[in-house]
Amino acid sequence: MMNKSAPIGVFDSGVGGLTVVREIMRQLPNEKVVYFGDTARVPYGSKSKETVTRYSRQIVRFLLSQEVKTIVVACNTASAYALDEIEKEVNLPVIGVVKPGAAVAVQATSNGKIGVIATEGTIGSKIYSKYINEIDPSASVVGKACPLFVPLVEEGLWQDPVTDEIAKRYLTELIDIGIDTLILGCTHYPLIRSTLGRIMGEGVTLVNPAYETARELKELLEREGLLNDEEPKLGDNKYRFYVSDAAEKFKRFANSIIKYGILSAKTIKIEEY
Q1: CB-hemisphere CA count at 13 Å for 264?
Q2: Which of 23, 177, 218, 245 is the most exposed, fewest CB within 10 Å of its CB?
Q3: 13 and 43 in contact (C-beta within 8 Å)?
């Protein structure tokens, strides 16, 4: 029997997955979290399926070494490319970020025109279209790859004229098509949500899959009898953060995203897993 007080393992290509961790902290305050951000190898979106799957396997092995009770793939590209493989290989509940986001978008749309912005990998996989059309075959899904958003976010240019300009170029096509719902199909994108919302205008609902992922995680833990009903003891290391490079920079970011006061982020050699 899995230990209820064991931590939840969460991983992403960089800092984006912290938007999911933020929601887990809010919605599941008793849970411990072990986070890994692959800062040495970000972005994932421009890499091949084989490479992303190999990276994801290494990270999963690291998280298993930390005795996690469940794994959240807080990266859309890894969810698109590697989730099926991970589920087959791991004897734990695994959850990705794509399905929850797709489900909410279907509920949110009135005109049936849903836009997805994501990395090249996620858009190329057509995974959002697949899940959305399984729920609603009549929905029209338009994907737009936005490869420059992740580097801009990782550089901290969240509110910057450069980001504005690039966002306008990427989003014009979706505005012209007349979508009424836009999925932020990369966990980095909620960090530039205000820019995206301003450009899309008030008539467009922005869907942040992080919120839904945490909600689904809660349901999953309840179903599996793994929900931690006691608050971790004081001095119990509740939130642990690991990266593959640039721990100081990550720590600064993490503190501005989570506002929790992250004391440290440890660098580990992920290739050794």
Answers
A1: 4
A2: 177
A3: yes
The active-site residue, picked from 153, 186, 207, 254, is: 186
pTM of the entire predicted model: 0.92
Q: Could you tell me if 222 and 31 are in contact, meaning their C-beta atoms sit under 8 angstroms apart?
A: no
Q: Are 11 and 36 in contact (CB under 8 A)?
A: yes
Distance CA 234, CA 190 (A): 31
Distance CA 92, CA 71 (A): 7
- pLDDT class of 267 with cuts at 50, 70, 90: very high
Percent of the chain, pLDDT > 90? 89
What six digits make up the tokens of 188?
Answer: 């980095």
Distance CA 261, CA 273 (A): 29
Q: Tokens representing 165?
A: 């300009």
Secondary structure letter of residue 69 according to DSSP: S
Instruction: Tell me the domains of the chain and their CATH numbers.
Output: 8-96+211-272 (3.40.50.1860), 98-209 (3.40.50.1860)
How far is residue 58's CA from residue 41's CA, in Å, rounded to a whole number? 12
Q: Of residues 75, 214, 217, 243, which has the active-site annotation?
A: 75
Q: Which amino acid is at 104?
A: V
Q: Is residue 186 annotated as part of the catalytic site, yes or no?
A: yes
Active site residue 146: no
Q: How far apart are CA 66 and CA 9, in angstroms?
A: 8
Residue 3: how many other CB atoms lie within 10 Å:
10
